[in-house]
Amino acid sequence: MIITTTTPGATIRFTTDGSTPTETHGTLYAGSAYIAQSTTLQAIAYEAGFIDSSVTSATYTINLPPGWTIKDFNNDGNEDVLLYNPSTGELGVYFMVGTTPLSFLPFANLPAEWTVVGVGDFNHDGRPDLLLRNPTTGEVGVMLMNETAITGYVGLGVVDSSWTVVGLGDFNNDGQTDILWQNSSGALGFWTLNGTTVTGFTSIGSLPSPWTIAGVGDFNGDGKPDLLWYDPTTGNLMVSLMNGASVTNFEAVGNLPLSWTVAGVADYNGDGSPDLLLWDSTTGNTGIFLMNEATPINFVFIGNVPAPWRPLD
After folding, report:
1. Per residue in 168-219, pLDDT tens?
2. Residue 68, pLDDT score
3. CA distances from 191 to 71, 195, 198 (A)
4. Beta carbons within 8 Å of 58's beta carbon, 6+ residues apart
5. CB of 180 within 8 A of CB of 172?
6. What DSSP line would sit under the chain, residue for residue?
7. For residue 14, which of 60, 48, 49, 51 has the smallest C-alpha distance?
8. Consecutive sets of 10 residues in the chain, 313 residues long: mean pLDDT of each?
9. Are residues 245 and 220 in contact, defined by beta-carbon separation less than 8 angstroms?
10. Contacts 24+ apart (CB under 8 A), 116-119
11. What is the pTM of this model?
């Protein structure tokens, strides 16, 4: 985003937190400003010998395509990688720039019986929230986040342990993050949500054994979430192209070595196609399959995740 002033040499400060910018308060504008979520920006220009400008404001609304969930934990416009230590319950994040990890930040601890089963923006603040599941009690809830700070928790309900969360996406095109479930029988369906309120359940069909859903993303560029299928016995991957709850076509993706799994789906290189975060459970090696829709075009090794840490979607 570009901010301009008619006063030559004037300094511009801006805010996005609701506060009023002044000569001493706000972010110094340095030629461009990045906004990753819906927000109201306020700006002021000032220069010695001139009267300060009035504070001007503009509201920007940013909506993700239905097939996408946000995983940017430091609001820099890059998708990050969430890590989990099942031995301690600790959560951390690899801050990324494209496919390059810059730094690691541990930020929370989960009770031993809870785990993260999804990342998405449930309360529409432009920040990724964490979907949690207690497999013992069946409880499901959302940990609301402001970057890496926990701001609240909302319970969603209790689900039988035969059901597993396998992805997030806006399956009914209402601008809300929905939750995709797979049953041990192979049955598939999704919870429709309004923010953090479950509004219904829609059946999709059933997967033949031993296939499972490994992720959700828009793999054909139509703005609708598609399903990434994975066969753990062969390593085969394929995509079912979707129109809401209806399958419109299938596309083969490729084959993974059996020690590798899909740990997440996100657009790491910013080209508009969902990429696949891959993890080798034997060695901890982690990399990204860069994709052109459903076609892998390159593999980028990003590092080694030391045991018992593992990446999460």
Report:
1. 999 999 989 999 999 999 999 999 999 999 999 999 999 999 999 999 999 9
2. 47
3. 20, 12, 6
4. 40, 41
5. no
6. -----SSTT-EEEEESSSPPP-SSSSEEP-S-----SSEEEEEEEE-TTSPPPPPEEEEE-----TT-----SSSSSS--EEEEETTTTEEEEEEEETTEEEEEEEEEE--TT-EEEEEE-SSSSSS-EEEEE-TTT-EEEEEEEETTEEEEEEEEEE--TTEEEEEEE-TTSSSS-EEEEEETTSEEEEEEEETTEEEEEEEEEEPPTT-EEEEEE-SSSSSS-EEEEE-TTT-EEEEEEEETTEEEEEEEEEE--TTEEEEEEE-SSSSSS-EEEEEETTT-EEEEEEEETTEEEEEEEEEE--TT-EEE-
7. 60
8. 87 90 92 67 92 89 52 91 94 95 94 93 91 96 95 96 96 93 97 96 95 96 95 98 94 96 95 95 96 96 94 87
9. no
10. 116/82, 116/84, 116/91, 116/312, 117/164, 117/165, 118/69, 118/165, 118/167, 118/168, 118/179, 118/313, 119/69, 119/70, 119/71, 119/82, 119/168, 119/264, 119/312, 119/313
11. 0.81
The pLDDT score that the predictor gives to residue 313 is: 77
Tokens of 47: 């220069």
Cα distance between residue 254 and residue 259, in whole Å: 15
Length of the chain: 313
pLDDT for the residue numbered 55? 93
